[in-house]
Amino acid sequence: MARRQEVERILRIVMGSAILAFGVYNFYYLNNITEGGVLGLLLLLKNLYNIQPEVANIIIDLSLLLIGYKYFGKKFFMYSIFASLSFSVLYDIFENIGPILPSINSMLISTILAGISVGVGVGLIVTTGCAAGGDDALALVISKTTSLNIGRVYMLGDCVILLLSLSYMSIDKILYSLVAVAISGNVIDYIYNHVKTSKSNIMIKSEL
């Protein structure tokens, strides 16, 4: 039983990473929609202080995952590393394949699809008890230690980074990104709470 649960956990992480990588490449990257979280922070640091993203990403992501390790333990940390590597590998695959969807002429539709894909991908990953990256780990920790739900934490953090990004980006780009962030935050919150409620109901039934 335990082995089956581990396999299901790994498969859900891979599935979430695939959806996330697909959305980030096909909807965010190809339509020049920016992000909040660590990705938005890396772009901000690069544009304002010329700090190389590859260096900053390792330091920031690892630091935030270590905070998650402190609160959630070794398994959380190891599965989060696996999720992060899965995303990187799958993103490279989608990038090498290139665009596989028909061109979408509406920026609004692309933004909505971007938010949904990231929300579903990250939502699936966090329901396994790990994080896709450092910002996910931080969101889980803040949600655990405060009264804020996880979707609200994502939205607040992303909005702060996006508003700071006005220092080098046009306001219309930021507005589209804010729409994507709002959608992804709500989708993550819905999936996370739905799975948590389902698990609680199963536990209650097993005790009856």
UniProtKB/TrEMBL annotation:
Keywords: Cell membrane, Membrane, Transmembrane, Transmembrane helix
Family matches, as InterPro entries: UPF0750_membrane (IPR051461), YitT (IPR003740)
Membrane-spanning intervals of the chain: 12-31, 51-69, 76-94, 106-132, 153-169, 175-192
Lineage: superkingdom: Bacteria
Primary location recorded for the protein, binned into one broad class: membrane
Compartments reported by the entry: Cell membrane
Membrane topology: Multi-pass membrane protein
UniProt xrefs under Pfam families: YitT_membrane
Entry keyword annotation includes Iron: no
The protein's name: YitT family protein
Provenance organism: Romboutsia faecis
